[in-house]
Amino acid sequence: MAQVTRRRGAALEEAILRAAVEELQEVGYRDLTMDGVAARAGTSKNVIYRRWPSRAALCVAAYREMLPTGAGGAPDTGSLRGDALALLTRANERMSSPVGRILRELLADIHSDPERLRELRDQVAHAGVSHWLTVLARAVARGEVGQAALTPRVATVAVDLLRNEYALNGARSVAPEVLTEIVDQVFLPLTRQVQAPGSS
Q1: Closest Cα to residue 192, out of 84, 78, 89?
Q2: Which among 117, 5, 131 has a CA at the least distance from the CA of 63?
């Protein structure tokens, strides 16, 4: 067991979350234990429980630490189609990675904790949406689509459909041609047809 180190506040919480992330990456959610996280963080299980009331609460907080923080930025290929394919390919690579496996385990196993499930779904829904809004804003500026397309709901459609391939169809990875279908058959037609409220 790691030596217990006296830390407080943000430093202690950061150490615990880092330990939880490492445990999730090594053993997955189903095999993660609070004892394992405590040992890796060099603290006690009681200290963890004072901050997170359950294993699910800790792991949802740890998953948040794994989400993209904007690194890489939004692609700029010069067209909405190119940008959308680049973003969807990036999302697909993430969903098929070990981090994507962790997310699927969490979503499958925390249905008995509605608050944590809602928190996790909110995290997933908002992750990366700013990049989609950025590429849509560029498309509006180029005249490819109208201003009415620049909404979070439109922006997340392609990723939502990709996520369904994993969550509902049990995919381990999604083929590039499926990504192209999502962009060409659903996302692009939607962005070009959506109209502002009240318009005919």
Answers
A1: 84
A2: 117
